[in-house]
Amino acid sequence: MADGRLVIGTKRYSSWSMRGWLSVHLAGLDVVEELVALAQPDTAERLTALSPSARAPYLEHLGVSVWDSLAIAEYCADIEPSLWPVDPVKRGFARSMSAEMHSGFQALRVAMPMNLGRGGRGLANGIPDAVRADIARIDALWTEARDRFGGGGHYLFGAEFGNADVAFAPVVARFLGYGAPLSATAQRYAEAVRAHPLVARWYAEAEAEPTEWLAERYESAD
Ligand SMILES: N[C@@H](CCC(=O)N[C@@H](CS)C(=O)NCC(=O)O)C(=O)O
């Protein structure tokens, strides 16, 4: 029997679920996956029944309840400490950029909802200024982390794909999905994240989801 369960939303669309799922898998937790298709008539009812916040992701592990992707990231790092860098300077940077992602970049989120089937099609009317500013800030964060701490590997803090990379994995999906303009360093980083085996697995599982789960709300961004 598994040690618990992880409630997630549609893999094609659920950026927060992708974060929770990646942290849980990186920490090696043995949980069953309970997937609630988003934007369906019964979504709210199912999430209310399965998750205390009525949102995904939600983790139950060995009797511990954890909701919200950032809390799940911290819970997983308690079990697998390498999810945050050991060095305090790197750790401070990793936690700060993850928190900034968690609470910010609203313009980007609204204009470019995660849709793993998007395939690089840009926004029809170009990128609004507020979204450009979000992209520039994220590009600067990735570039600084890569330049200062990333030597010896392809990820933000080097060879380990950790919680900071997890925080930005759905952003990578947005940038690649909408063909966002990036610096060479940020583009290389985005491609490294996309190629990570767990990220590749999430994309493959999203690709296999039933077509009935396609939702206008996420497909119609223009
Ligand atoms: N801050 C939360 C946000 C969770 C969230 O909003 N999840 C979305 C799915 S990506 C959700 O459950 N939405 C409910 C719905 O679509 O009905 C976290 O980090 O986990």
UniProtKB/TrEMBL annotation:
Pfam families: GST_C_2 (PF13410), GST_N_2 (PF13409). One of its GO terms (biological process) is L-phenylalanine catabolic process. The keyword Ion transport does not apply. It comes from the Bacteria. Residues 13-78 form the GST N-terminal domain. The keyword Lipoprotein does not apply. Keywords: Transferase. InterPro entries: Glutathione-S-Trfase_C_sf, Glutathione_S-Trfase_N, Thioredoxin-like_sf. GO terms for molecular function: glutathione transferase activity; maleylacetoacetate isomerase activity. This is Glutathione S-transferase. It comes from Acetobacter nitrogenifigens DSM 23921 = NBRC 105050. The lineage of its organism: Bacteria, Pseudomonadati, Pseudomonadota, Alphaproteobacteria, Acetobacterales.
